[in-house]
Amino acid sequence: MNRAISREAFLRDLQWCPRNFLHRYRLAFKDLDDVPREAIAPLPDDLRQALDKLQPLDPWSASVMAQWLDPTWRCKAWSEIDVMPKEISDENIQREKRERSPAGEPLEVHERRIDPFDGKRYSLAQLLEKYKDQYREKDIKSYWRNAMKPNEYLVVD
């Protein structure tokens, strides 16, 4: 387990993929004679099986995943790699926001964060209620944004 992920998220992800999904497909380097070389390691079977469980969000993502799953595919140099078009990226972000908050409510309505003072999870509304007699609303919102960490990635109950 690593410090960048909570234990709960680690255990949840462990069900999807039994190890860290970090695979270095291609290493490019120069040898002692300054000749460019590369070492290639295709995606191992266990990581390929984990990737097979994913559902692409759009045709662009589907084409990229198909490349990763193709054993004959060769990775491009960094300078040649295509990036997701901004329109698709923006559309995916908007779709995810709608799925998280179908009523158009801000995510903070549902999101729970951990209060470092007592270690419990609160929505912003719950936190405002908890501290309303002690602090100004502006200060509570600042505390929410800056001191309270999201639980796992963004937990929505």
Structural features, described:
There is one protein chain. The chain is an alpha+beta fold and 157 residues long. It has six helices and five strands, in the order H-E-E-H-H-H-E-E-H-H-E. It has a domain of 44 residues. A three-stranded antiparallel sheet has the order 4-3-5. Strands 1-2 form a two-stranded antiparallel sheet. Strand 1 and strand 2 form a beta hairpin. Helix 5 crosses helix 6. The relative contact order is 0.10.
Could you provide a short overview of the structure?
This protein is an alpha+beta fold and 157 residues long. It has helices spanning 7-16, 45-52, 59-69, 86-100, 124-131, 137-146, and strands at residues 26-30, 36-40, 113-114, 121-122, 149-150. The chain has 6 helices and 5 strands.
**Helix fraction?**
25-40%
H-E order: HEEHHHEEHHE
**How big is the Rg?**
22 Å
Number of strands: 5
Oligomer: single chain
Region (Disordered): 89-111
Write a concise keyword list for the protein shown above.
alpha+beta, three-stranded antiparallel β-sheet, 5 strands, 157 residues, disordered C terminus
Write the layout of secondary structure elements.
Elements: H1 7-16, E1 26-30, E2 36-40, H2 45-52, H3 59-69, H4 86-100, E3 113-114, E4 121-122, H5 124-131, H6 137-146, E5 149-150
Antiparallel strand pairs: 1-2, 3-4, 3-5
Helix pairs in contact: 5-6
Region (Disordered): 89-111
